[in-house]
UniProtKB/TrEMBL annotation:
The lineage of its organism: Bacteria, Bacillati, Actinomycetota, Actinomycetes, Pseudonocardiales. Keywords: Membrane, Transmembrane, Transmembrane helix. It comes from Amycolatopsis japonica. Residues 85-191 form the Phosphatidic acid phosphatase type 2/haloperoxidase domain. This is Phosphatidic acid phosphatase type 2/haloperoxidase domain-containing protein. The chain crosses the membrane at residues 7-26, 52-75, 82-103, 123-142, 149-173, 179-199.
Amino acid sequence: MTLQRGLYTLAGILLLVGFVTLGLSVDERPPPVDVALADAFRDQHTRPAGQVAGLVTHVLGPVLPFALGAVLVVIAWRRRDLTVLCVKLAVVLLLCRLTSLIAKPAFYRERPREFPDLSYPSGHVVAVACTGFVAVLLCAWTRPRLARLAITIAAAATVLGALCRIVLGVHWLTDTAGSVLAVGGVGLISAAWLGLLPLPKDPA
């Protein structure tokens, strides 16, 4: 293992430790910041702001990883020299997406309001964050000049997706923060071990 790969792996482990620690700390009782935001947006899901947020989360949600997966298939089909890269990116995408499916039963946290499914972490935010993470890797390996733009778009989409879930009253703030920690942790570890990190000419 190279030093750079080890550093990325260590960073990923630390993020996962943060994810688990946060989940355990909020499992029984939401912290004041969660309660304050939940109270501030109470019943917004029935109002215009909530309706807009609902429309946004139809796009910034579980559909995104499937869309990116389809893009990776097309790229691999049209560019055979990128097939291995696309397969590795698909593995990272799948592992990151699984974080919410695996973690929710482990923490069994309830939503701010009555709503199906469990709360920690947010599946929608996980979907947006993992799509953004893999999209950044894709750009870094194939179109380096677009990497900074991809990072900006991924970060903005993740924040917007998280805000919409909070406005809808279906997630606590810490649910969305946990989603980012989980995706970051799994993403860094899996990308490092698959040889996607460090990036080409990465100064790390």
